[in-house]
Amino acid sequence: MTKLIQIEPNGVPVVDSRIIAEKCGIQHKNALELIDVHKDSIEPAFGRVAFETATLSTAGGPQKMRFALLTEDQATFLITLTRNTAQVVAFKVALVKAFAEARRQLEAKPAFVLPDFTNPAIAARAWADEVEAKQQLQLENAKLTPKAEFYDEVVGSPDLMHLNEAAKVLNMGRNKLMAGLRKHGIFQDNNTPYQTYIDRGYFKLASSKWTDREGNVHITLTTMVRAKGLAYLRKCVKRLREMDARAKIEAQANFPTIAAQPEADKAPVSPSKFRSLVESCRRAINGANGAS
């Protein structure tokens, strides 16, 4: 079996997050951070992430290392969040081939092998287990096959960048970027671009299918940014920042402020001057009372 992936007891091919980090040229802790940050998006769509712990021998004694075993769906999503360097693209191609080869080898296995047990009940149970395992594998393959197309079309393309990556390049938060694009009519409410901006070659919508535990098929749309679109987003971000700056200036101009006092009024009042002011006020009040 390929060195890139391993087969779980339930017949599902998986890839170790440590291998992904090594082959992509990033630190493993950064790969785990990506998984943790986007876990709420990964698990509802692609199933629970299987985390494992390994014990490493170090100079300071045994150390625990946390890693993840990712299905093809989960690995696909994770790799879309990495930058498409030549090294990453080469690994993506190798990983697609590895998953495809794993599926071919699993499908080539005999449907079932009846053990030579003298106990008929044990033999029947073993036969039933083999049949159930093959049925489960066929279900998993039905879920995983559309991902190969997603890899070939999107993940392996050096001309496409995930929107998360684009936001980092532009030094702007992803949510703030999407809010600005929605506000100015570039993105729809579901955070996908309007067709006119796709036709201009700025974005590409990549679709992938997945099946939940009830057998319902869902389609996930992922917004990818083209090289031409990144240049367009730079201009958009510049305009957004200029508009934010103007809005702040206008807000400050419209906000009521206390007029600056003359410097003479800011000087402290001496005790004698204060008493003189009090006496003047009293005389004015007495004079007004006498007049009335």
Task: List its salient traits.
alpha+beta, 12 helices, elongated, 2 domains, 292 residues, 3-stranded antiparallel beta sheet
Compute the number of strand runs.
7
Helix content: 55-70%
Uncertain segments of ≥5 residues (pLDDT<50)?
A: 147-156, 257-261
* Coarse morphology: elongated
Count of discrete alpha- or pi-helical segments spanning 4 or more residues: 12
State the end-to-end CA separation: 111 Å
- Give the strand order, joined by hyphens, for the main sheet: 1-2-4-3
Structural class: alpha+beta
Element-by-element helix/strand order: EEHHHEEHHHEHHHEEHHH
The overall average pLDDT, rounded, is 77
Q: Tell me about the biggest sheet? A: 4 strands, antiparallel
Oligomer: single chain
Provide the gyration radius in Å.
33 Å
Which strand-content bin applies to the residues?
Answer: 15-25%
Q: What's the structural domain tally?
A: 2
